[in-house]
Specification:
Structural class: mainly alpha
Distance between the termini: 13 Å
Strand order of the largest sheet: 1-4
Shape: elongated
Largest sheet: 2 strands, antiparallel
Strand content: 5-15%
Order of helices and strands: HHHHHEEEEHH
Length: about 120
């Protein structure tokens, strides 16, 4: 997939996940109702973004894309809870979107990472 295709797919998935860009209200009020499709919104979002990094590293965008469910770092699995001698312990956990944001930041190609992990 090209970077543009990855970005379009990510935007579409984030919109489906509840993300509403800053221009969403105005778009819904003045747009032609026949064009209020996810594909059109994704295309319009790409046109309105000042830079790709502003979008892909946005926390609201990431939350809608990956969710806020806690996962174990490195494995991406749900945290394990155990009980021994009446003491409950929980493995360290981080919200899924934060984990993926961290991985994107250190990735050589953040858009490739995004495409591989949607």
């Amino acid at each position: 997939m090209t970077h543009k295709e990855i970005l379009e797919k990510a935007i579409q998935k984030a919109i489906e996940g509840g993300w509403r860009p800053w221009w969403f209200r105005a778009y819904m009020l003045v747009s032609d109702p026949s064009q209020k499709t996810l594909e059109h919104m994704a295309h319009t979002t790409i046109e309105k973004m000042p830079c790709v990094e502003f979008l892909i590293f946005n926390h609201d965008f990431a939350k809608a894309l990956w969710g806020e469910t806690a996962v174990q770092p490195m494995t991406g699995k749900k945290p394990q809870v155990s009980e021994k001698d009446g003491v409950i312990s929980v493995d360290f956990q981080i919200e899924r979107y934060k984990y993926h944001l961290q991985q994107m930041v250190i990735s050589d190609d953040p858009l490739k990472y995004l495409g591989d992990n949607m």
